[in-house]
Design a protein that fits this description.
By secondary structure, this protein is α/β, with parallel strands linked by helices. It has two domains: 3-206, Alpha-Beta Complex (Spore Coat Polysaccharide Biosynthesis Protein SpsA, Chain A); 214-324, no CATH class. Helices cover 46% and strands 16% of the residues. The protein has 15 helices and nine strands. Strands 1, 2, 3, 4, 5, 6, 7, 8 and 9 form a nine-stranded mixed beta sheet that branches. Helix 5 packs antiparallel against helix 7 (181-192), helix 5 packs across helix 11 (249-258) and helix 14 (292-302) runs antiparallel to helix 15. The protein is globular and about 60 Å long.
Length: 326
């Protein structure tokens, strides 16, 4: 079995060496690495060239003439991938040495051809990082309920995906829509999948360092990119059996997409939450599948109780997660 491990790279010179070492350390060896270097201006390209020469792994180094964003970079890699399965990594994170090995073992142990293998992850690169457990699922429809309902994350680096599934259904990233691109990709993959496997082991370490404010992360331009990806999901799901069975699923997805705006102490972020996808604000008062503290948060936001939202942020995120669970 062969895996194509896809890594887009743009000005990642500071973090890339550790990521490359975690790729080199994979116990499973029947895989190719595809680096899609996106016309950066630092020393990333030189690091990638050295790795390709001395890693002992089959490598493909794609060089863009001009920066086009992560979605376009991943599409270039998909066009040249030869593996039976696809895996993904970002250039500032770390792969567990057994990530590919355990995913392949899960595929081989299944009685059915497996379309997607998922696993848990760790928030933070150090040993004291916080273990993040994905919601349970044994079938694609259960995964889709988790993904649209806000109890499961869709980051690409948590999944092994059969390449034939992607090619058969023409699943690609939308160039220029670099925010929410993994949401669009993985939701469409699960929609077309037949058999899936979940591993409750942390196989990936996500770099939690991010100094950008929520306001910058959800600027009008970036919200527009999210909307482009959402509309593609909406188009693909419109006539699906999943949406016939769960007609409110895409409304729940909108709530999930804008929820991070409430994880802030800034009233302007709260107002953005209220005005973005306003048609689902009433749904926030009805939704009952999330943890109670999240339901309470969204209900306060739908009623524009901004003092309560701020108290939630200070109590849950700054105190509980920032101090007790640090």
């Amino acid at each position: 079995m062969k895996i194509s491990l896809i890594t887009p790279v743009y000005n990642a010179e500071a973090t890339l060496p550790a990521t490359l070492e975690s790729i080199r350390a994979q116990r499973f060896r029947d895989f190719e690495v595809i680096f899609s270097e996106d016309a950066g201006t630092d020393g990333s390209a030189a690091l990638l060239e050295a790795f390709c020469q001395d890693s002992g792994l089959p490598c493909k180094l794609l060089r863009a003439e001009k920066n086009g964003g992560a979605a376009a970079a991943r599409n270039r890699a998909l066009e040249v991938a030869e593996g039976e399965y696809l895996a993904f990594a970002d250039a500032d994170d770390l792969l567990d040495p057994g990530m590919l090995e355990l995913a392949v073992t899960a595929v081989e142990a299944s009685e059915h051809p497996v379309d997607i293998v998922g696993w848990d992850w760790t928030l933070g690169l150090n040993q004291d990082g916080r273990y993040m457990r994905q919601a349970d699922y044994t079938a694609p429809i259960e995964a889709l309920r988790n993904l649209t309902g806000g109890t499961m994350r869709w980051n690409l680096w948590m999944f092994l995906v059969r390449r034939e599934l992607i090619e058969q259904h023409g699943i690609r990233f939308i160039p220029g829509a670099d925010i929410g691109e993994d949401m669009q990709f993985m939701l469409r993959a699960f929609l077309k999948a037949n058999h899936v496997v979940q591993l409750h082991e942390s196989l990936y370490r996500y770099n939690a360092v991010n100094s950008a404010s929520i306001s910058k992360q959800f600027s009008p331009e970036k919200r527009a990119q999210v909307e482009i990806n959402f509309r593609e999901v909406e188009r693909c799901f419109a006539s699906s059996d999943f949406c016939r069975e769960y007609p409110n699923a895409l409304e729940d997805l909108k709530l999930f997409l804008k929820r991070p705006l409430l994880i802030s102490a800034n009233k302007l972020d709260y107002e953005t939450w209220y005005s973005w996808f306003p048609e689902v604000n009433e749904r926030a008062k009805q939704k009952g599948s999330l943890p109670m503290h999240t339901i309470v948060l969204q209900r306060m936001a739908s009623n524009r109780c901004w003092l309560g939202v701020k108290m939630y942020y200070l109590l849950i995120h700054k105190f509980v997660y920032g101090i007790l669970y640090r």
